[in-house]
Amino acid sequence: KLAGCTLFITGASRGIGKAIALKAAKDGANIVIAAKTAEPHPTLPGTIYTAAAEIEAAGGKALPCIVNVREEQQIIKAVEKAVQTFGGIDILVNNASAISLTGTLETETKKVNLMMDVNVRGTYLTSKTCLPHLRKSRNPHILNLSPPMNLNPMWFKNHCAYTISKYGMSMCVLGMAEEFRGEVAVNALWPKTAIHTAAMDMLGGSGIEKQCRKTDILADAAYCILTKPKSFTGNFIIDEVLLREEGVKDFDVYAIAPGHPLMPDFFLDALKEEKKLSGSQHEGPDGAKVNTAKPLSPVAETFRLIQGAMSEEYVRTTQGVFQFELSGDDAGTWYIDLKTKGGSAGFGKPPVTADVVMSMSSADFVKMFTGKLKPTLAFMSGKLKIKGNMTLAIKLEKMLTQLNSKL
């Protein structure tokens, strides 16, 4: 369906952008790889040239262009080169994005500038530069990788600058879809669950991939959108919802680890499982609802069990000291020392300076340590705040998985 179409994709040297490019390449599309990485990166895979080789091997034609979307002249030059090479532009995918999940006081000005420049300004300028050419296409599309705008304050309070920047991309969809209605389709696409990319590895650390889906799901959803008529415009699409409507039934094929619980992505209020677990009523023998008695101190009981489960193996493999600042019914400061001798856990500040300080409610702490609330989900939904060494925080999550059977 996309044979002979020219796609201009920002950030297409790896991850989601490259996956969308490869899907279109199988039809015989022309792909303009507009990305920064020309020389191999020390930690991130792929360059515009390795992506070009993969695209051509998949059946497409590739034009690698060095483009930092913060630089308007680089965008203009790449668009001109694309038109000279392929005769026009049919589709623009605004995929390039910058992320920093930090609070207002912790976000350096250069990080704020980066996110606003790449996510909002870069999307706006690339769209503006491509639009005169898109208007000449028979079935032109702009697709932004941005979320539906959810004004629940929880999505602002922990990473205000990032949220503003991603919603800026979404507002481009709102405005341009209406401005160019009948001429150019403008839509947004967002994943229901976390997607395994280099960025996710950086944010979540090793082991996070089991909670993610492959980039293929977004590539398939993008293909569905980009092959629709230009009258399909102004939509904020969730990948799984669209694919179900298209008749897809087996979503295990998209999972990195089929059967493993998946982590919801940002900006989607999808915490139903957790809500189910928060009920305090249970059915009695006759089916009547009865309130279960609350333990004297759930937090103290949890720390007693943690202390009993301590082992030199945990200390050797973790090498970290964790301090918990708890609020709510069981408010107070607690610690787990997995660095000193055989390890220890208890009330008050740790015997040595903590490597990681975690703040959350006492109720959520108990849920987290008994396997009813995943630490990653608690962090992403704002229930858990972490200061200090994130790598050690991830190590603690691994230890929790082993401890859950004992708690």
Automatic annotation (TrEMBL):
Subcellular location per the Swiss-Prot or TrEMBL entry = Mitochondrion; Peroxisome
The scientific name of the source species is: Fulmarus glacialis
Cite the SCP2 domain residue spans from the record: 311-400
Q: Which NCBIfam families match?
A: PRK08278.1
This chain's protein is named: Hydroxysteroid dehydrogenase-like protein 2
Q: Which family does it belong to?
A: Belongs to the short-chain dehydrogenases/reductases (SDR) family.
Q: State a GO cellular component annotated for this protein.
A: peroxisome
An example molecular function term from Gene Ontology annotations: oxidoreductase activity
One Pfam match, given by its short name, reads: SCP2
CDD domains the UniProt entry points to: HSDL2_SDR_c (cd09762)
The record, for PANTHER family, names: HYDROXYSTEROID DEHYDROGENASE-LIKE PROTEIN 2
Query: Superkingdom of this entry's organism?
Result: Eukaryota
